[in-house]
Amino acid sequence: VPELPEVEATRLSLAHRIRGARVTSVRLGRALRWPLGIEPAHLVDWIVGDVSRRGKYLWLPLSGPLRGSAAATGGLLLHLGMSGALRFELRLGPPGPHDHFEMQTSMGTLRLTDPRRFGAVVWAPAPDAGLAGKLLAGLGVEPLSDAFTAELLHQGLRGRRVSIKQALLAGDVVVGVGNIYCSEALFQAGIDPRTPAQRVSLARCTTLVSAVQATLQKALDSGGSTLRNFSNAEGMGGRFQELAQVYGRDGQACRRCDARVCRLVQGQRATYFCPGCQRR
Ligand SMILES: [Zn+2]
Predict the structure, then answer these.
(1) Cα 126 to chain centroid, rounded
(2) 32/9 Cα distance (integer angstroms)
(3) Per-residue pLDDT, 228
(4) Among 56, 87, 172, 205, which one is least packed by beta carbons within 10 Å?
(5) Which range, of 70-79, 182-191, 197-206, averages the lowest pLDDT?
(6) CB-based contacts of 95: which residues, under 8 Å, 6+ apart?
(7) DSSP labels, 258-274
(8) CA–centroid distance, residue 149 to ligand 1 (Å)
(9) H-run or E-run covering 205
(10) How many angstroms does the Cα of residue 248 sit away from the middle of ligand 1?
(11) What's the 192 CA to ligand 1 centre distance in angstroms?
(12) How far is CA 129 from CA 9, 126, 236, in A?
């Protein structure tokens, strides 16, 4: 599942190359999670702006041909879902059975390959309007921004009886701390993933905020994780999985204390932790 670092790796591998490109055609494959929301032919001659990211969504701003004195504006909100990957290349071969969105431009072809089709490409007049506005509303703060503080996290965990792992994964306090990075950050912070969220003290929230940021930064620096077949828009895989301390290492010795790394299931997601290093 592409998580925040993978989405950011995709953005970084794409944004500088697609900026200023003029759309020449748009082709749709089978239905994705939501319909595109505009006739593909309407997007021809629109110009791509600076691609940005919010949580695991990418926003591809587009400005339309001049009508009178003002250019129409809008954009595409993209999500990689469970199995999606974006490519942007000058030349790509003919679309395959899992290529469900393809936008040809003056500077290359943007293609979404998504075997499970939980991904999406959605038109909106602005990121805070239409379906995009609905999807982006209610997202927590960006984990690598100054807005993600121990105070904000502590406040957001107040009154929540679910485990700290599930509270972080929920995404309404902080976005982008997906399953892999959540296990890794809780290990780094020394917090047992089963600890009730409301019992995590402000002091431990301080440690946890740093751990989340360090874990995500490390993942960004290594180009994300390639657990199944993630690759960025240049077709490059990431290397984070080789750096994982607990994720996917159940039964193996903890690299810090030599205890055996454990696996459990919380809210239908696998959690990995070290009973020696992590406390309630
Ligand atoms: Zn340990």
Answers:
(1) 20
(2) 22
(3) 44
(4) 172
(5) 70-79
(6) 27, 29, 102, 111
(7) -PBPEEEEETTEEEEE-
(8) 26
(9) helix 202-221
(10) 14
(11) 11
(12) 26, 5, 33
Whether 2 sits among the annotated catalytic residues: the reply is yes
Pairwise CA distance, residues 191 & 183, whole Å: 10
Concerning whether 134 is annotated as a catalytic residue, the answer is: no
Respond yes or no: is residue 65 known to be catalytic: no
How far away, in angstroms, is 244 Cα from ligand 1 center? 13
**Average predicted confidence (pLDDT) for the chain:** 91
> Per-residue pLDDT tens for 5-41?
889 989 999 999 999 999 999 999 999 999 999 999 9
269 noted as active-site residue: yes
| Full-model pTM | 0.87
Q: Which amino acid is at 5?
A: P
From the list 11, 17, 56, 249, the catalytic residue is 56
Q: Assign 1 a pLDDT band (cuts: 50, 70, 90).
A: confident
Instruction: Name beta bridge partners: 85.
Output: 113
Are 162 and 169 in contact by the 8 Å Cβ rule? The answer is no
> pLDDT tens digits, residue range 209-251?
999 999 999 888 877 655 445 566 665 555 666 778 999 899 9
If you measure from the C-alpha of residue 257 to the centroid of ligand 1, how many angstroms do you get, rounded to a whole number? Answer: 4
Q: What is the pLDDT of residue 66?
A: 74
Distance 278 CA to ligand 1 centre (A): 7
pLDDT at 117 > cutoff 80:
yes
Choosing from 2, 5, 115, 127, the catalytic residue is 2
